[in-house]
Amino acid sequence: MKPYKDILFLAIPIALHSVLFASLGFIDTFMLSALGGDTVAAAGIGSRILWFVSNIMFGIAGATTIFCAQHWGAKDKKSLSVSLHIGMLHAIVASVVLVICVLVFKEQIASLMTNDKTIAALAGNYIQISILCVLVTSLSVIWGAGLRAIQKPKLILYLFVFELLLNVSLNYLLIFGHFGFPAMGLEGAALGTLIARASSTLILFFYVHAFERVLSLSKASFAAAQAKAKNIAFVKIALPIIGGEIIWSGGITAYHTIYGNIDSTALAAMSILAPVEILLASFSWGCAAAVGVLVGEKIGANQYDELSVYIRAGLISSVAVGGSIVGILWVSQDLVVGLFDGVEPEVLDAVYLLLPFILASIFLRSVTMTAMSGVLKSGGDTKFAMYLDMVAQWFGAIPLMLILAFWFELPVQYVYAAVLLEETLKLIPVALRIRSGKWIKKLAETEEAMEPMPA
């Protein structure tokens, strides 16, 4: 039972943090639904762009967690600190480049995702403010990666509770203009998110430097983080993760673009369901992230007998988590959908039609997420995961969706059914890869091997 207890110890705070993070989109959608379907659809586009760009930050953070977890298992705090600084440098540079690109092309991006000019204009204004969150996120996700790697994820949860409460309060004031504040509508939601994220990151900075010195900024670690060999080792692991995030989240964004070009009703329905799906899938991510930390620790400590036990426990847990989520949402679907009764009736009808497909997707992703992110990526097998994502999405699901939507002109629920193909295609190759053992890589040894020999 120990593996399940260890997974539960890490998974609960990670999952709750992920749920709270995802709930921001859900809460924004709920509060903005009072302003009508166009506003909800515009928020959905803006949130999807922010989510896509943030996933690149999460990819860098994922690589940081992999290195830090193995160093933690090997009890090498010095190398852990250096890996954290490498991750921080890459995250900051990437965030600046991405934010500039989105700001320059925000109008074109919004127009690509919908053929409704009113919705595109609203989305462009939302993106202009919300994308600035990425600059702040580049810092917070790396410290969060470090805290997870040293198995102290509770702080991230507590801090995000503060961020969530602040965000909701600011949304209430800035969307609707209560207590003398300007009624900014959609732009108020974006501004509230930005202020809340910046505040929580500032608190995290002071906490880490006061109580978790191994994760604090250091001149020595910063100097070591500029070593070419260490950056090459980091990039070899990080690039496939980032590539996988771009491929996967780009595919999800392509799905959203297809919905938006079917009709505005389909786009509004998916804009309501997408935050719900992300919110519930966060429980599965908690399981996957916990398994990933423990897998990395066991590899770093050379405890391979225990490793297989933890992998088995992680996969069983993913099935249990996915099944529980689906069952709960199915029973409470009227309550969940009823929260959005401010939108048009035809949008709510589309939501009910799509819900069974969303539930199937949540269950399948619970299993594949744990197998790929929790096991394969944590063992350093990031290229395999990237290639698998690319084949399943871009050579499977997306072409089929385009055919169903624009050739056969089928309703959106049948188009969404093609999404299930993506996750189904992954199951067999993932199982065979785990069974082969070829995914296990000692990253700390790779770093040492790349160090130049002393003269």
From TrEMBL:
Keyword Ion transport: yes
Membrane disposition: Multi-pass membrane protein
Coiled-coil zones: none
Domain of life assignment: Bacteria
Segments crossing the lipid bilayer: 7-27, 49-70, 82-105, 125-143, 155-177, 189-211, 232-258, 278-297, 309-331, 351-372, 384-408
Annotated localization: Cell inner membrane
UniProt xrefs under InterPro entries: MATE_fam, MATE_MdtK, MdtK-like
Protein name as annotated: Multidrug resistance protein NorM
